[in-house]
Amino acid sequence: MASLRLAIKASLEQSQPPALPQQTTRKRGKGPPSKKSKATAAGPPSWTRGDVQLRPTRATLRGLNVQRPWAPMLLDGSKVIETRTYDIDKQKCFANEWFWVVETPGKKRQRGQRAHITGCIKFSSESVRYTSLAQWRADEDKHRIPAGSEYDWNGRGAMYGWRVEGAYALRSPLPRPDPKGVINSKPVTRTVPRGGWLA
Fold first, then answer.
1. Is 199 a member of any domain?
2. With b meaning 16 or more CB within 10 Å and e meaning fewer, what string describes 128-163?
3. In this predicted structure, what is the pLDDT of residue 116?
4. In the predicted structure, residue 195 carries a pLDDT above the cut 50
5. Which of 40-54, 86-100, 137-151 has the lowest mean pLDDT?
6. CA distance 60 to 58
7. CATH number of the domain within which 69 lies
8. Alpha helix locations (H) across 16-161?
9. Distance CA 43, CA 105 (A)
10. Where is the composition biased (Polar residues) (predicted)?
11. What is the pLDDT of residues 144-181, one digit of tens each?
């Protein structure tokens, strides 16, 4: 009888699925931290020249001068190419870096108008080199330079298009860099208040 019971017990043990390994819990503060907990403890990245975390903070960025009406177009996405007579990486390396957009009144400045910071922008390292008027005209909906205007390109000389990679507009303008320079300014620190971004 005893041998029969042992045989039944052995048969049942063989038919059971293998037991899962028991999970162990680590007490808080014990053992090395995981990669996930380490990243969480470090918090989000801060503003840097190569990238930017948009949140209420003090940011130190170079300023890029852009005339009105093109500055607002760059920030609202209706202008996706900024045109310049030099390549983006040939002069002062403007690619892959966040800049303050310093909106300037331009040649038709009215009394009391002054330059101010209206947002920030970042350009791709891949720019467009225009080699024909046909190519230039085909991109008019991207660079937003009207045909026949004083800023229109006549097909002679160098002309490049800087591709916008990212742009954010401010709800209210911030004071301009002083001095703002002809093309761009040295890094300047500004504080963006909470809720200060439109996007």
1. no
2. bebeeeeebeebeebbbbeeeeeeebeeeeebbbbb
3. 94
4. yes
5. 40-54
6. 7
7. 2.30.130.30
8. 35-42, 70-76, 133-138, 140-143
9. 39
10. 12-24
11. 999 999 999 999 999 999 999 999 899 999 998 887 67
β 57-67/98-104 pair status:
parallel
Q: Report whether 75 contacts 101 (CB < 8 A).
A: yes
Residue 90: inside a domain, yes or no?
yes
User: Could you give the CA distance from residue 89 to residue 85 in angstroms, rounded to a whole number?
Assistant: 12
In a domain, 116, yes or no: yes
Q: Give the three-class secondary structure for 26.
A: coil
Six-digit token pair at 87?
């390549």
Residues 6+ apart with CB under 8 A from 36: none
pLDDT of residue 19: 37
**The pair of three-digit structure tokens given for residue 63, joined into one six-digit string:** 């300023």
Q: Is residue 18 part of a domain?
A: no
What residues have CB less than 8 Å from 54, skipping those under 6 apart? Answer: 120, 168, 192, 197
Q: For the ranges 16-25, 28-37, 89-98, 139-148, which has the lowest average pLDDT?
A: 16-25
Number of structural domains the chain divides into:
1
| CA 199/CA 151 separation, integer angstroms | 30
Residue 39's contacts (CB-CB under 8 Å, 6 or more residues apart) are none
The residue segments making up the domain with residue 178 are 47-192
